[in-house]
Amino acid sequence: MILSFVKHNVCIYMHGFHCRFHSTLTSYKMGRFQVYFILFLVASMTMIQLSTAGGEGSVPVEECPSACSVRCSATHHPGNCMDVCQDCCGKCLCVPSGTVGNKDECPCYRDMKTKYGTPKCP
Q1: Residues near 77 by Cβ (< 8 Å), separated by ≥ 6?
Q2: Average pLDDT, the chain
Q3: pTM of this prediction?
Q4: Residues 6+ apart with CB under 8 A from 3
Q5: Measured at the alpha carbon of residue 88, what is the angle toward residues 84 and 89, in degrees to the nearest 5?
Q6: 118's torsion region: left (phi>0), alpha (psi -120 to 50) or beta?
Q7: 9 contacts 22 by C-beta, under 8 angstroms
Q8: Model confidence band, residue 87 (pLDDT cutoffs 50, 70, 90)
Q9: Between residues 62 and 47, which one has the greater pLDDT?
């Protein structure tokens, strides 16, 4: 077995006049590429999850009552609030976080109006 170095190539073994080359630089670059690619995938999946968190379609219909109980926890009219909130949640599949405000998290919820043009969803 004969080892010889030619630039970034390492001759692994020599058989007759043929030398098998293995590029250490190429392996290093491929390893870095794979690490960066995996980091990119993880970052992409995280961004997708964050972008849909709290957005339309983020609350399954069966979770509307619990989401609305949080939303209506500070109101003086909890029964009415729960009824309207669950109706809005059933249509939009979204309930804004907190007890008031934050309606920009759910444009469908924010834009629903009563027949008088006032906001429908609490």
Answers
A1: none
A2: 77
A3: 0.55
A4: 10, 11, 12
A5: 115
A6: beta
A7: yes
A8: very high
A9: 62
